[in-house]
Amino acid sequence: MTVFFPLDTARLRLQVDENRKAKSTPAILAEIVKEEGLLAPYRGWFPVICSLCCSNFVYFYCFHSLKASWLKGNQSAASTDLIIGIAAGVVNVLVTTPLWVVNTRLKLQGSKFRNADIRPTNYSGILDAFVQIIRDEGVGALWNGTFPSLLLVLNPAIQFMIYEGLKRQLRRGVPRELSAAEVFIIGAVAKAVATTVTYPLQTIQSILRFGQFNESTCESKLLSSLRIIKCLLVNRARKYGMLGLFKGLEAKLLQTVLTAALMFLLYEKISSCTFRVMGLSNNHYKKH
User: Fold this and answer.
1) Among 20, 84, 146, 171, which has the minimal tally of Cβ within 10 Å of its Cβ?
2) Residue 36, pLDDT above cutoff 50
3) Where are the Solcar repeats (predicted)?
4) Cα angle vertex 183, ends 64, 263, to 5°?
5) Long-range Cβ contacts of 234-242 (<8 Å, 24+ apart)
6) Are 111 and 36 within 8 A, CB to CB?
């Protein structure tokens, strides 16, 4: 996440700041550095890392615990991976959404927006952001964007389904440990497909987490979460066309694909080493 963090910064600016023109990722980053300083692309790095550690722990722990309980030593299937991935994703969303709301606000604090309607914030850190959000917007604001996040559990679910499926194909007939290059490639392919399919929802998720979307464009403040998502999607599509729903996708693909591929590579290597340290055989590792 640290290596590719500036790409995530570029993506978030394009999603939230509607008046910022969509340019290539290097051009967006050059603008940010020129206007806000050399370290601006890394603004909000610490809260994001904290959220990422919590989120990955919750997701992977739930995924493999559920998988072990469900399969009980039997061979897995793509449909099983999908169901388990969705269940683990739901738990992850409900537990970690407040952290992601806070880090979204902190990442965007101090940014020079093209949209004059965006109000500046003044959070001194993670805890202060929690306190101010609860005080000014209520506890429920910490779960802004929960509904699109729940829909987005399909992202890691699709990602893991494709990843596990490709891994089984490569191991078919010859049980073996995958090479670093193979893990990197199938991780990148899996994440690229999942990200592209779900990107419009990710844009709405960022807008809701930022907490400065214009509710007056909808018919009523009492609209359900589904109606709000539909309203925001339709308004963005009307103003900027269908491509407006994919604004920032280039940066997102670069960041998530490279991050996911590197994460899977390290994950497989660390898992393999852990099993060996625990005294378990390679066959036990491959079986699971």
Assistant:
1) 171
2) yes
3) 1-69, 76-169, 178-273
4) 60
5) 236/18, 236/203, 239/18, 240/18
6) yes
